[in-house]
Amino acid sequence: MSDSLVSHSNSLNNSSPNNTSSLTEWLNYMQHIHVSAIDMGLSRVLPVAEALAVVQSAKDDAYVFTVAGTNGKGSTTAVIAQMCQAAGYKTALYQSPHLSVFNERVRINGEMVSDETLINAFSKVEAARLKCDLTLSFFEMTTLAALLIFAEADCDVWVLEVGLGGRLDVVNIIDPDMAVITNIAIDHVDWLGDNVEAIGAEKAGILRDGISVIYGAAEMPNSVQQTIDKHQATCYQVGKDFSYRENDASTWQYSNAAVTLQLPRPALSLTNTANALSAVLASPLEIDIDAIEQALQTVKLAGRFDYREVYERQWLFDVAHNEQGVEFLLAQLLPLWQQHLAKKNTASQHSATQPTIKILFSMLGDKDIDKVVQRLTTAGLPISDWFIAEIDYPRAATTEQLQGILAKYINSDQIHTFARLPEATNAVVDSSQPQDLIVVCGSFHTIGEALSTLETR
Question: Each residue of 105-135: pLDDT tens digit?
Fold first, then answer.
């Protein structure tokens, strides 16, 4: 460890929060105890994890699902957890990032853990960190705290979402019993590489010898297949070992070599649901059809094709933030728009104003904004207006940056610019009609700020 890191760590030792500090104070503190927000690698994390005994606890006492991939991790983990919980297993779910409150990241049996539980875990992680004389990033600290909470709660099943990549992500200190790779696309190129082979190798780094892996895309990079072969893992791939199709608006069909199931349609993507179901069915857990059906009828995840009515307006919140994510969004949005249009036209036959789509949009500056905007503007949807603003996050794209990219594809009078997202959120409410559909997308942070604004408006 470098002298600068030791100095940085020691300079903060005297200002550590304690059990009487608030959750906000702890979160603010942990954002500043390491020199960088993202610092991939496990060498600093492992000694602290061993001091906390979280690795051994997972190995001895729990069945672990680990989910990696470019898109769909949140929905996939949510469905797995809901099925396990419905079958009677005490189920831990770790996801990131959160939309509104940090507690969303750490759930047991579907319930967010309390501030008190988090603060207690942060205190123990901080004590172990100081004992090891190491600095950890915010994500490393908070992930270790989540794992410690699951261990202390003696959960039967752990469902873990990888934060970034796989091989070097802190979640990967835990050996999975079942791995899921949802898909692989270009994203996070500064950390994972700029091609699917490099990215695939990183995400396949969650595999272990002899385990099962669900691969949820039709195309598999060679790097992933090579890692599967190296570990002699059993792979179940969509289109080869399992398949699914939509029956109608309320049912769908899942098939593998052993079963064909007619199931209620969930509120989440069928692609991610099929991957999750494949993982559950390939596990040794006892989860019957009643638990599966119950889970599909109740599972939900804020910000993932999240359709709701707020202030007499119809809203669709989706965290799509890269080209593949937008493809998933559009595949579900196009039929939804047709249903919305039919319903609104029937309800307001005599209205002179036709329903349109208005988009509330912002992204992080290190994402491929151009590709996302191009795909949204060429999808054939009647998008009348874009409301754009900078989100409150260090890596946020500026309003000017967003405006410059949008101006390449649409008329300037369709672009409404604001300094901050709360202003844009209020403006889209005031500028829309009840028959319109407001789509909010581009980032977890975009969804979170929009929801927060609507809650306090």
Answer: 999 999 999 999 999 999 999 999 999 999 9
pLDDT in tens, 220-261: 999 999 999 999 999 999 999 999 999 988 999 999 999 999
Contacts of 280-286 with C-beta under 8 Å, sequence gap 24+, read 280/80, 280/83, 280/84, 281/256, 282/178, 282/212, 282/214, 282/234, 282/236, 283/63, 283/65, 283/177, 283/178, 283/212, 284/63, 285/63, 285/84, 285/87, 285/89, 285/157, 286/87
Q: For the chain, how many structural domains are there in total?
A: 2
**Encoded tokens for 114:** 């309390």
| CB 262, CB 276: distance < 8 Å | no
Q: Domain check: are 21 and 48 in the same one?
A: yes
Read off the tokens for 55.
Answer: 């690795």
Please determine, for residue 331, whether its predicted confidence score (pLDDT) is greater than 90: no
Looking at every residue in the chain, the average pLDDT score rounds to 90
260: β partners:
255
Judge contact between 359 and 376, C-beta under 8 A: yes
- Token pair for residue 418? 């604001």
Claim to verify: residue 156 and residue 273 sit in the same structural domain: yes
Distance CA 160, CA 77 (A): 7
Q: Which helix (H) or strand (E) holds 138?
A: helix 138-152
Question: Pick from 276, 298, 320: which residue ends a domain?
Answer: 298
Strand ranges (E), 10-143: 63-68, 91-94, 106-108, 111-112
**Cα gap 172→193, rounded to integer Å:** 19
Beta-carbon contacts of residue 411 (< 8 Å; ≥ 6 apart): none
Report DSSP letters for 214-240, one per residue. Answer: EE-SS---HHHHHHHHHHT-EEEEBTT
State whether 20 and 136 are in the same domain: yes
CA-based nearest residue to 159, from 280, 289, 328, 271: 280
pTM: 0.86
Same domain for 327 and 232: no
Q: Quick one: pLDDT band at residue 457, thresholds 50, 70, 90?
A: confident
Residues 146 and 254 in one domain: yes
CB 52 within 8 A of CB 141: no
In degrees, rounded to 5, the angle at the alpha carbon of residue 433 between the alpha carbons of residues 321 and 435 is 80
Q: What is the mean pLDDT of residues 289-311?
A: 93
